[in-house]
Amino acid sequence: MPHDHSHAGHQHAAPPPGGGFNAAFAIGIGLNLAFVVAETIGGFWANSAALLSDAGHNLSDVLSLALAWGAAWLAGRPATQRYTFGYRGATIQAALLNTALLYAALGFILWETIDHLRHPEPVNGRWVMVLAGIGILINGVTALLFRSGQKSDVNVRGAYLHMLTDALVSVGVVAGGGLVLLTGWTWLDPVISFIILGIIAYSSWGLLRDSLRLGLQAVPDGIDPAAVRAWLLAQPQVESVHDLHIWSLSSSGHDAALMAHLVRPGGADAAWLGALTKGLETNFHIHHSTVQVEDGALPGGCHSHCEAPEVAHK
């Protein structure tokens, strides 16, 4: 049976280099790098596992910010003949790598904390409180720099959550330093470090989950694939839908793409395809769609390892 293949799609400009957060990344990296140096020196001088664990995590934050910034810059580069989608996927790779680095750092800090618990040493609680108090200010300010973009981009959300978590953890370190200063119980310091590690691991779980989903090209959050299929089947004269794929081109929640094959007798003209593409954008926030229209079932069935066609009931 003859069939007509038509394609509809959008070409969108790349996001701005740095994702619009160049200043936030630069300020965040500068502030946190200076604080890591100060906190590491202070941690050794005060014999504080809590300070050293916080410094280690802050160092991972500096690396994370640098990776996120580099990925955001790459995402703003134009597409090429080989990289036809541009480099938007770099933000997904950065989110995955940042999560891996974070949990690796947690493992190292956990080992050091266990050693401090087994061999507790005197802790300078006053020095711990001073440095951790500075951390509240630095991490809090950095988190605010990324707040506006954290709901729409996993890459930016990673930076925001790291900084916000650090600010909250620093509050705990200040409280712990005060308790050590008042009671003299040196074992409190590694115990507080354990609590810090637990908070970081728990708060980062969602980032790990979302990064893995993006890396595996899962359907983005907020898009119901069953609803998309039903909507496509409801379009005039569409008999079935197959080979439907929905994924995200980058870590941004507004960068969804779709590919689908529709069986529609008589094929489709430009006006129909334009309305279909506009409808996907309006109803599901899918901004990059490619639709192949077939005027009947393919000879010999589906040839691209797609699922069996679903027939509309009209």
TrEMBL record:
Q: Which domain of life is it from?
A: Bacteria
Q: Does the keyword Transport apply?
A: yes
The UniProt record lists the Cation efflux protein transmembrane domain at 27-213
Compartments where located: Membrane
Q: Does the keyword Nucleus apply?
A: no
SUPFAM superfamilies referenced in this protein's UniProt entry, alphabetically: Cation efflux protein transmembrane domain-like
- Topology versus the membrane: Multi-pass membrane protein
**Keywords noted in UniProt:** Ion transport, Membrane, Transmembrane, Transmembrane helix, Transport, Zinc, Zinc transport
Q: In what residue span(s) does the Cation efflux protein cytoplasmic domain sit?
A: 220-294
Family recorded in the similarity comment: Belongs to the cation diffusion facilitator (CDF) transporter (TC 2.A.4) family. SLC30A subfamily.
Its name, as the record gives it, is: Cation transporter
Q: Which organism is it from?
A: Hymenobacter properus
Q: What is the lineage of its organism?
A: Bacteria, Pseudomonadati, Bacteroidota, Cytophagia, Cytophagales
